């Protein structure tokens, strides 16, 4: 893989899916089966149907990081499926149109600390 040239500097691979990509069991299985478990894979969904226990369980079993994100019409939750969490702050009401206040940033910081993650 081309990312291998980064060596130890390689972080994770982020896969961002479109808002039209709704949850189905078949789609979940396809995602999990195609990701290399030797990599730190993060999947960011843009449709709320993916926030469910079946997805969390499959990701935990496969070692895939569920990307928690603040975005319009998405659950405002921190989801931890591995020892690390990944969070993207896009804006709760409009995509990319929000300046997070210090209080909002502190709230996310506290969520991350409370999650028990060893890496964020």
Tags for this model:
120 residues; 4 strands; TIM Barrel; single chain; alpha/beta
Helix content: 25-40%
Percent strand equals 15-25%
**Which architecture would the CATH scheme give at its second level?**
Alpha-Beta Barrel
Number of domains: 1
Distance between the termini: 24 Å
What is the tally of helical segments? 3
Mean pLDDT: 89
Name of the CATH homologous superfamily: Protein of unknown function UPF0759
Could you describe the 3D structure shown?
- This protein is an alpha/beta fold.
- The protein has a single domain (2-113), classed as TIM Barrel.
- It is 28% helix and 15% strand.
- The chain has three helices and four strands.
- It has a four-stranded parallel β-sheet with strand order 1-2-3-4, with helices on one face.
- β2 (41-44), α2 (53-62) and β3 form a beta-alpha-beta unit.
- α1 (25-34) runs parallel beside α2 (53-62).
- The longest helix has 13 residues, at 102-114.
- It is globular and about 40 Å long.
- The mean pLDDT is 89.
